[in-house]
Amino acid sequence: MTAACHTGGAATVTPARAPRLALVGSPNAGKTSIFNALTGLHAKTGNYPGVTVSRFVGTCRVGADRYVIEDLPGTYSLDPISADERILVDVLDGRLDGVARPDALLVAVDATTLRRSLGLVAQLLARGLPTCVVVTFMDELSRRQGRLDVAALGQALGVPVVAVIGNRGQGIAELRETLTGWDHWPVPTIAPPTEAAERDAWAESVLGFAGYHPPQPHRVTQRVDAVLLHPLWGSLVFLAVMVLFFQTVFTVAAPAQDQIENLLGRLSGLVVAHVPEPWLARLLGEAVIGGIGGVLVFLPQIVLLFLLIALLEGVGYLARAAFVMDRVMAGVGLEGRAFVALLSSFACAVPGIMATRTLPSAKDRVATMMAAPLMTCSARLPVYVLMIGLLVDPSARVGPFGAQGLVMFGLYLLGAVSAMLAAWAFKRLGDRRGLALPFYMEMPPYRLPRPRSVLLMVWDSARSFLRKCSTIIVATSFALWLLLNLPVHSAHHLGAAGVDAGDPAAVAAYTVDHSVAAGLGRLVSPVFDPLGFDWRINIGVLSAQSARETFVATLGQVAAANDPEHPDDALRAMTDADGRRLFTPPTLAALLVYFVYALQCMSTVAVLRRETGTWKWPLIAFGYLNGLAWLMAYLARMAVIALGG
Amino acid sequence: MVPIHPQPCPDQPDRVRWVIPAGWLPCVGPLAACPSPLDALVADGTLVEVAAEPAAVLTRLGPGRSWAVDGPRVRTALHAALDDPAGWHPAAAATSDAALAAAAGALLAGAAGRFARSHGGVIDLVDVRDGVVTVRLGGACHGCPAARATLRERLDRQLRRMIPSLHEVREARG
């Protein structure tokens, strides 16, 4: 990065570090297109220290020079009402620890909404940093009979103005060229006014000087919106889209998930067959491969979900869906976009929590994240199926419906209603000032999504999901395996205990029965005794703490059933120390309700940690959900006993 | 509030040209008096010169002052003054033809000229006498049947708004 490495005539002073340029603009102003065009794939994503605002930093190379481009959260103004805008203002002022103040600003403005964008431009110019205005969607402006003289706009604003058409790369070369002179960019002689009426007059005058004619309304957009934003038709279309969305995530992902499971199963088999040491083979096969597999099976859902979200967002439908749902979500104090995240959580809370990134308000994001784990995720399904099978006779009917299906539906409903109430509660707690955030949502015209942006979004979410969550998943399943299989008992010890050392099932049963985990299961029994759980269920509940599906497999292992995936019969016959049946209706009801509420998924905890950037929210979620789970399970047990169960 | 925005004057850092709607002020040239509170800024030395142009107000800053500090005050005062166009009085009773010539020149350099150029045409100012403005239509305008309508619709109407004493706009012959 020094001038010494290239022999250019004049001894120019090269800064020791690359200049930092912040990219600012309204949502949908084409900021991401500019960012991608300038930085290519050299972007790093993360969070701002201590807050739930995603951060994107990339590097742009022009010749031998490097420029650090930081894509700041989209905003309509610099009046910090939401936490995201607070971050933006803090970064611009250099007040955020660990984030250097930018040296210059790139302001993206959409030519089709230039009048509104000038308010933000005025506020940014008033900060006195070297600024370049990047005008986007000029092609759409002229297609819709609008006009703008870009050179005159630059003259009126007193700063460089470059027009780019992001999806064709037009103007990007000129923008790169402009970047090199950032420290010589002209600044306005007199900063734009801060007072509202004067600022409006300024914007009006600048627009007039630049010969601006706003575009005609987009005719296709208008006609389609007449249906999609209609209170009745819009809601119906929304329902249809959501059913398709839900179906696609569930059904299309399923074969891919099976493939991954099969592949890993075979891999695990190979390990068991070829690793001579049995304990090492089981450690590798069950803990390592099983652990990675637990993550990988989520991958098709994640990829598919983000592909669908990116497509819906790129086309412009997500803004409409959010608008339609806004009235419903307003009842719990959230905005429409939170609904999409909650809906995604039906598949899995992990992508649901990641989908909260579309929410501009950090408070709404937190409230939605706290509610998302309550939506019935696909991991609860095996547990529900098993428990309902034990609880309800398959032939029992209520009217035309099977009783089992009704109980299942009731559990889904309980989860959804609880999620809404939780979101409402967290929104109320988070907004103690009672300040209603003005909610400004723009309906962008329908556009064809850019394949590059869509793929980048999918790639980015898949990669970060794999990289960061796999570490936690692998670690927990490793630890769990050790807990279930230690201490190792010698053949002599087994013989003394009356166990046939040659029967692997008997050895496994004995080992599990006397494992550290079993000790833990007995240790926590004072907590779970009021719910009717014995130490074997406790182990299942504890192991389900890493991922819910493990409850089924763990109970199977503990019950030493021949088929660990279908331990129904062995479980049904299971009795407690006094010879009474273990799985009575009150206990089963308590277990089911416990699984509705408990936060038992370490992937969720890990992704909460990653998305919020602190341990505070995962700890709160963990505490309140598990506390609530215990309380509700206890009430459910009492209710069933009172009903004569 | 009258739409205005400042633009620097090249190589004259003490001057700022405030772009205003064309024809807003009834006069052009240096001013004998401008409405308060703008006159107070001239009195206290913040500004040493205020001049009206057909589509702008030119302000010159007093010595030792900076636009960064005084610019917002000048803007606020200018906004108030522009709300009272009748309070603006020219320094010398400029002949009405001179005002007309300045206004026509400004229009041809600005919006009207830009419109003609966007159609491949050129409009040149030939003469201004007794309230009659004579222009020559060149480029694609020459021989264009719509040129006369354009002349009347755009130049005549906009000029009349600025200088109500305009008699007519004529096309030069030959």
UniProtKB/TrEMBL annotation, chain A:
Pfam families the record matches: FeoB_C (PF07664), FeoB_N (PF02421), Gate (PF07670)
Q: Which residues form the FeoB-type G domain?
A: 18-185
Give the record's keywords alphabetically: Membrane, Transmembrane, Transmembrane helix
Residues crossing the lipid bilayer are: 232-256, 288-318, 338-359, 371-392, 404-426, 588-608, 620-643
Q: Which SUPFAM superfamilies match?
A: P-loop containing nucleoside triphosphate hydrolases
Which InterPro entries does the UniProt record give? Fe2_transport_prot_B_C (IPR011640), FeoB_GTPase (IPR050860), G_FEOB_dom (IPR030389), Gate_dom (IPR011642), GTP-bd (IPR006073), P-loop_NTPase (IPR027417)
Q: Tell me the protein's name.
A: Ferrous iron transport protein B
The source organism is: Luedemannella flava
From TrEMBL, chain B:
Q: Which InterPro entries match?
A: FSCA_dom_sf, NIF_FeS_clus_asmbl_NifU_C
| Pfam families assigned | NifU (PF01106)
* Domain of life of the source: Bacteria
Q: Which SUPFAM superfamilies match?
A: Fe-S cluster assembly (FSCA) domain-like (SSF117916)
In what residue span(s) does the NIF system FeS cluster assembly NifU C-terminal domain sit? Answer: 117-169
**What role does this protein play?**
May be involved in the formation or repair of [Fe-S] clusters present in iron-sulfur proteins.
Q: Name it.
A: NIF system FeS cluster assembly NifU C-terminal domain-containing protein
